Amino acid sequence: MNAPNPSGWRPAMGDGVQDPAQLTASGDRGLMLEEPLIFELGRPGTCGVDFDEPAGEMLPGLARFARKAAPALPGLTEPETVRHYTRLSRQNYAIDLGPFPLGSCTMKHNPRLNEKVARLPGFADIHPLQPQQTVPGAIAAIVELADWLVTLTGMDAVAMTPKAGAHGELCGLLCIRAALEARGDARAVILVPESAHGTNPATAAFAGYRVENIPATADGRVDLAALTARLEPDVAAVMITNPNTCGLFERDMKRIADAVHAVGGFVYCDGANFNAIVGKVRPGDLGVDAMHINLHKTFSTPHGGGGPGSGPVVLSAALAPFAPLPFAQVGSDGVLRLIEEEDALTAHPHSFGRMAAFHGQMGMFTRALTYILSHGADGLRQVAEDAVLNANYVLRSLDDALDAPFGEAGPCMHEALFSDDGLPEGFTTLDIAKGLIDEGFHPMTVYFPLVVHGAMLIEPTETESKAGLDRFIAAMRSLAVRAQGGDPSLKSAPHLAPRRRLDETLAARKPVLTYAG
Amino acid sequence: MRYLPLTPGERTEMLRVIGAGSVDDLFSDVPVEARLPGPIAGLPGHASEMAVERHMSALAAQNLAAGAAPFFLGAGAYRHHIPASVDHLIQRGEFLTAYTPYQPEIAQGTLQVLFEFQTQVARLFGTDVANASMYDGSTACWEAIAMAGRLTKRSKAVLSGGLHPHYVSTVTTMARFTGDTIEARAPELTAAPDDAALVARIDAETSCVVVQYPDILGRIPDLTMIAEAAHTAGALLVAVVTEPVALGLIEAPGLLGADIVVGEGQSLGVGLNFGGPYLGLFGCREKFVRQMPGRLCGQTVDADGKRGFVLTLSTREQHIRREKATSNICTNSGLCALAFSIHMTLLGGEGLARLARINHQAARRAAEALAALPGVSVLNEAYFNEFTVVLPRDARDVVRELAEYSVLGGVSLGRLYPQADELHCGLLITATEMTTTEDIAALAAVLGEILQGVPA
């Protein structure tokens, strides 16, 4: 096993250590470079773009609308711009630098072929309102991806337009609501397990439903008895994440679905954790009516520091007629079309309408399709197997050092869950997370799911090597040992990152959201 | 498989550590009948990088790219020149492959970019503050209406006829499920928007008036007058900007009285991408900040007193507030915000003004050339880089015929408003700094040929 720090060197940490940055006149420290804001660097009138022609005169009719002064935005030349952003980039951790084991986020390697393909002019330089006759390849790519998603999930149709996971949740609930309204059956309640992602209750509320929580059992699953007891004709849907946010498969999924269907409700599945089962299990076989797929998780489109995502929603036959516009369809003449408002009345008359302008996240579709074709059916199955194998390896390599609340119950899926139970007085999950930063790793998801105290949710994904996992495990063990030994320096970690712990209370109490200078 | 590092030997060794006999044992919680015995039948197996690239390139080659034809489309998505450094910088792995900056000590790069982006958007829009982005302009528009409802405790939004019809549809869909009333109507083919008629629709129930600026036909509404009327009635003015480059030339909506300004940021740095991913912009007055949707980046200090940035006011957001959140939005458009911000940094305010002037000139040249064709007239009294021409017949057919000559000749109003027969003769034409004199000559020549012999 590799040591966490092969050189054996360990920095002194703790109170009274002189800040090394004070030792330099610049405030920089070797390759650790500070960077001012563009508003501090830039000069008014500077421009990093050359123009070929003079500005010219304004149409007389426009003069009364003219801006009194150019926007107060300083410009930078190209070399200054490249340096500014390159220096800033070096203050980020990223999957390209090392493991990023954020549970429920699926931070896997982002293949660069996907980037290359998405930038082909035939995909990147086409306008969403070009005549469809000029973009058959784009429509074919959407349909090809749609076919894969439908087949992999065992569902009947897919709505491609939602722009991220939460937008997909909304799409699914709007389909459900439209289906219920179509049969004259207004329902008021959506049941959501306690362990759900925060977006689930937020989406249900946004779609006009009352949210009721369903408790979890001691083994971390939805309480089937409690759920069944609550199933009455006012329940529109149940929103379930499977595998769930404790990293466990909901064994009773089919029974839950049957019970919900029996009272006329629908089953929404949060597909954020699809990476654990892709190619191994089809949600359609478990009675799911709608499920979003985060292309930026399972299908590797880059997270980009917070988006863009893409959240296509696969639908059962009962919900497919209500899918939003535009809707990708193969016509009876064999021609692929995107059904828009112009043809909706005849070709897709029950659609609940449009969720966003244009056709969805095309740039994510091409990346995801490239990823899927690279793996094929066999490779995707291997993805799920390796993701689950890696998570179980982490679980079993750490369950003697940290409390694994569901560790006794059997294997986990693609995430290993630990709690702060057993950490000595005064040490918290946050301290372990911040200690990981000093060890050169991105922390795991912390304090989620809410059903476990001080949760640490570790999702290694299939793109981590065994050697990489061993380094991570060694770092985690070392942090557990330091906590057990009462090491005070852990309480103030990180010490070696571009910044130490930031004052979030100050930021929220007196918000400074723009540069004032 | 080139993306999967585990070797067969390592898999065996790991299973031994776990204490499992096989990988299938790890899936024991999945009911047997739901477990697939092998790869799904009928789907292809894994493929080499070369094979996948060949397949995807063949699909891409079937499309007529904007750069390969005289190109005049707009209507909410604009083709501008993106400096090479923008795409280079956003592909740095530290930006491209980072997550939402929940661990600020190791995400200062993304966070500082977001802080700079928020400042740029606020200054461009003339608002006090801006958020760290939304999905796109249409969804940002809905979020603005929802926020206006929370602020005014009223539930009727009055939409100007000049609001992009896809935005109208998006907003109408959302409102069906929240109980808000959306008062919308199609535009009329007049030289200037009828702002007086819009103002007359505001009443005591109105939470906000939503006005696109410039509007879907390229006309410029009088925001000052509309803002005064809205405020008198206790309503807010939401301005919608689908072409931010216009704000290099026309006044910032926030300085004309708009309370919330939203927009589509795709014009700067992002590109066409067949409609997505795009970039929702959202700015407003400082006093509304606790009702804003989406992520906000704020300045603070670290334990050593150094300046740093964090995501802040997250008690508005779904991961803390759950069903009481201001919005369900989570992942948004971080990388597109970075692209926008880099492009804006290269331009600076003066560069943006210059770029805007050049766009306007290109549109003027195009308008002049098209107005010279028999039977074709330019509708607009004023416009920025997009205007409406009225043709002697259904512009949908004309656009399809132009495409047969490999001319991408604008967006027909019939595509946008299939139910409004009186608009079907309208064609939206956009010209930007990318539009050459030759492009304009080609459009005028082919359009003239297509229309020849058709009585006006």
Overview of the structural elements:
The complex is a heterodimer of chains A (517) and B (456). Chain A is α/β, with parallel strands linked by helices and 517 residues long. Chain A has two domains: 115-368, 3-Layer(aba) Sandwich (Aspartate Aminotransferase, domain 2); 385-506, Aspartate Aminotransferase, domain 1, CATH 3.90.1150.10. Helix content of chain A is 33%, strand content 9%. Chain A is built from 15 helices and twelve strands. A seven-stranded mixed beta sheet of chain A has the order 1-7-6-5-4-2-3, sandwiched between helices. Chain A has a three-stranded antiparallel beta sheet with strand order 10-12-11. A two-stranded antiparallel sheet of chain A has the order 8-9. In chain A, α3 runs antiparallel to α11 (362-398) and α11 (362-398) crosses α13 (466-484). Chain A is globular and about 70 Å long. Residues 1-17 of chain A have low confidence and may be disordered. Chain B has 456 residues and is an alpha/beta fold. Chain B folds into two domains: 66-80 and 349-451, Aspartate Aminotransferase, domain 1, CATH 3.90.1150; 84-343, 3-Layer(aba) Sandwich (Aspartate Aminotransferase, domain 2), CATH 3.40.640.10. In chain B, the strands form three sheets. A seven-stranded mixed beta sheet of chain B has the order 1-7-6-5-4-2-3, sandwiched between helices. In chain B, β2 (156-159), α8 and β3 (181-183) form a beta-alpha-beta unit. In chain B, α4 (84-90) packs antiparallel against α12, α6 runs parallel beside α12 (334-371) and α12 (334-371) packs across α15 (437-451). Chain B is globular, with a radius of gyration of 25 Å. In chain B, 62% of the residues are buried. The model of chain B has no long low-confidence stretch (mean pLDDT 96). The chains are: A alpha/beta (517), B alpha/beta (456). Chains A and B meet through α2, α3, α4, α5 and α6 of A and α1, α2, α3, α4 and α5 of B.
